[in-house]
Design a protein that fits this description.
Elements (H helix, E strand, L loop, with lengths): L1 E8 L7 H18 L4 E3 L22 E2 L5 H12 L2 E10 L2 E9 L5 E6 L5 E2 L4 E2 L12 E4 L2 E5 L8 H9 L4 E5 L7 H15 L2 E5 L2 E5 L6 E5 L3 E3 L5 E4 L6 E8 L1 H10 L1
Parallel strand pairs: 1-2, 2-4, 3-4, 10-11, 11-12
Antiparallel strand pairs: 1-17, 4-5, 5-6, 7-8, 9-10, 12-15, 13-14, 15-16
Length: about 270
């Protein structure tokens, strides 16, 4: 069985929600026109700037209710328009709780499911005060998309081997990794994805932002390092970006390689 995938690498936040979503829609349409894909994955927190670099709790008010907020219906329509499943992200409000959420919409616009980030960092050296803004997800689900079992890990989740192992044991053949990563760990990010693919004999598809981003009311900036990539079950890089903005990588995955890699290493 084959699965055609694309990972979009967004640039910095455009300035407001409408401009951001319009740019995302155009980039998804461009990717889908350039390469016929079954699944397109977008970076973490695609609807906002990376506000957890701030410690201002006003940003908690930017969260949206998942089912009735503006993002889900737009992605539903977009998936139908490009005839592809989309893994998108949002800042989710659920009562008093807030989640860093990824969700899957299939090519017919149907919601397949969602995942809430389970590993929430507080890392001052890279200006990641996420514990101020996100509650912890409680599950590592596996979904069926285009007939393939897939999992999702969001950004910091990738640094925890147990999360990868859990998804692999649950039957994930492909793990998608939406990220908004900056700072000194760019080379390590690429290595982590390669090692996870090889250790668990799965395909890995990482989607990051790229470029320098400023945050209203905060001094300085952060620079996302990009490095979106697609990796096979033996750790070979099938397609990769570096610091390009508004770009994508795509590849056709042969799912038979998952079983073949496990037999080869078994």
């Amino acid at each position: 069985m084959k699965l055609r995938v694309a990972a979009l690498q967004l640039g910095p936040y455009k300035g407001d929600y409408e401009e951001q979503l319009t740019a995302i829609e155009k980039q998804v349409e461009r990717a889908a026109t350039s390469y016929p894909v079954d699944v397109i994955v977008l970076p973490e927190l695609m609807t906002t700037p990376y506000f957890p670099r701030s410690q201002d709790l006003k940003w908690r008010e930017e969260a949206e209710p998942f089912l009735t907020g503006p993002t889900l219906p737009r992605i539903r329509r977009l998936a139908q328009r490009v005839s592809s499943s989309i893994i998108a992200t949002c800042y989710e409000k659920s009562g008093a709780e807030r989640y860093n959420t990824a969700f899957i919409v299939d090519a017919g616009g149907n919601l397949v499911g969602k995942y809430r980030k389970t590993h929430i960092p507080l890392i001052e050296s890279v200006l990641a005060y996420e514990t101020l803004f996100f509650d912890q997800g409680q599950d590592l689900p596996v979904f069926t998309v285009a007939g393939v079992r897939v999992g999702i890990l969001i950004c910091y989740d990738r640094s925890f081997p147990e999360a990868w192992r859990t998804l692999a044991l649950k039957g994930a053949q492909v793990v998608f990794v939406p990220t908004s990563s900056s700072g000194y760990r760019g080379n390590l990010y690429a290595d982590e994805l390669k090692l996870a693919a090889a250790h668990h004999q799965i395909f890995v598809v990482g989607s990051n932002k790229a470029g320098e981003e400023f945050l209203l009311g905060e001094a300085g900036s952060i620079t996302f390092y990009g490095k979106s990539r697609i990796i096979d079950p033996l750790g070979n890089v099938l397609a990769a970006l570096e610091g390009e903005q508004e770009a994508f990588v795509a590849a056709e995955l042969d799912l038979d390689q998952v079983a073949a890699a496990r037999q080869k290493l078994g």
